[in-house]
């Protein structure tokens, strides 16, 4: 199955997700780990689309998501930056474009190692809180802890 860039953009507009998780991780410099990911979830009957996306981008994995659903997932920072390059050349059309811009901003900060400082992590957490799948209670608790660290 050969995918065209405009088709990929439209498909991701409807089915894709840009997500940034922030987890407690005591071994990290600031006590938290930032985990950005791009994913597209489909029913097992359409798993061939996920493998086609993997071939199209040249990286990522296809794995089980939940029950009878599978996902194409990208987590490596370098690969996520390539995803951003693609969507900058082939812009999303729906409100997902706003999520993408926030996601891209967080990746840029991570590339600059801002996630390894309290101040940078505060900016990342504030931005992640505005994204569509944000776990607001958990992020609010993280924000409270970070603000306590900054005094």
The coarse overall form would be elongated
Strand % is 15-25%
Q: Strand-and-helix sequence, N→C?
A: HEEHEEHHHH
Mean pLDDT: 93
Poorly predicted regions are none
Helix share of residues? Answer: 40-55%
Major β-sheet annotation: 4 strands, antiparallel
- Secondary structure class reads alpha+beta
CATH homology-level superfamily? Homing endonucleases
Sheet with the most strands: spatial strand order: 1-2-4-3
The CATH class is Alpha Beta
| Total helical segments | 6
| Gross CATH architecture | Roll
| Distance separating the two termini | 55 Å
DSSP summary, beta strand count? 4
| Rg value | 16 Å
Number of domains: 1
Question: What would you say this structure looks like, in words?
Answer:
- A four-stranded antiparallel β-sheet has the order 1-2-4-3.
- The chain contains six helices and four strands; from the N terminus they run αββαββαααα.
- The chain starts with a helix and ends with a helix.
- It has a single domain, classed as Endonuclease I-creI.
- It has 151 residues and is α+β, with helices and mostly antiparallel strands.
- α3 (77-89) packs across α4 (96-111), α4 (96-111) runs antiparallel to α5 (118-129) and α5 packs antiparallel against α6.
- It is elongated, with a radius of gyration of 16 Å.
């Amino acid at each position: 199955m050969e995918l065209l860039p405009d088709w990929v953009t439209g498909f991701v507009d409807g089915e894709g997700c840009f997500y940034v998780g922030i987890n407690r991780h005591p071994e990290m410099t600031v006590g938290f780990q930032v985990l950005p990911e791009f994913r597209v979830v489909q029913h097992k009957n359409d798993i061939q689309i996920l493998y086609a996306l993997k071939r199209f981008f040249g990286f990522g994995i296809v794995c089980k998501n939940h029950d009878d659903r599978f996902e194409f997932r990208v987590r490596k920072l370098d690969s996520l930056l390539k995803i951003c390059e693609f969507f900058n050349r082939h812009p999303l059309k729906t409100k997902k474009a706003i999520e993408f811009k926030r996601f891209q901003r967080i990746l840029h900060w991570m590339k600059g190692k801002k996630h390894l400082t309290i101040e940078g992590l505060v900016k990342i957490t504030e931005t992640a809180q505005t994204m569509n799948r944000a776990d607001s209670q958990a992020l609010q608790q993280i924000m409270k802890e970070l603000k306590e660290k900054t005094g």
